[in-house]
Amino acid sequence: MDLLENVFVLLHLLGMAAIVGSAVFVARGRSTPALLWGARAQIVSGLILVGIAEAGADPVNHAKIGVKLVVAIAVAACAEIAAAKVRKGEGERPQLVTAAGALAVLNAAIAVLWVSGS
Ligand code: HEM
């Protein structure tokens, strides 16, 4: 179980790297597959991590997870809309891409800094 959990933590961190790396550092305002798939992957890998923690009877801070889920859905919404605009030939939406990157950084901060409670 520990190895499985660690593998999903790794995937979770790679998903974050894809979003923040693409939106903030590499493509700066351009929609990329890395941003879109990273945003989708965070929701899936995050929910799997919650499932693994619950199954292993590790304490789960439900308020924190709830907030992270809402923020992650907002990240995915920004990424999906920006990608859809490009697909339809309506041009880039740099503000949405930047918002997705900034919200992902916010979620990383929540993950690391929100330590109290269970
Ligand atoms: C953009 C979205 C997200 C980002 C950037 C993000 C980022 C992070 C980071 C940086 C960690 C810390 C890993 C560590 O300390 O080892 C983490 C852990 C975690 N995240 Fe997320 N997260 C996101 C979305 C979610 C979602 C949607 C959920 C669940 C619904 C979730 C559930 C978890 C759990 C359960 C852990 C603890 C893993 C562990 O250390 O055992 N995350 N996340």
Automatic annotation (TrEMBL):
Keywords, ordered alphabetically: Membrane, Transmembrane, Transmembrane helix
Top-rank taxon, per record: Bacteria
Residues annotated as transmembrane: 6-27, 34-53, 65-84, 96-115
Protein name from the UniProt record: Integral membrane protein
Organism, scientific name: Phycicoccus duodecadis
Upper lineage: Bacteria, Bacillati, Actinomycetota, Actinomycetes, Micrococcales
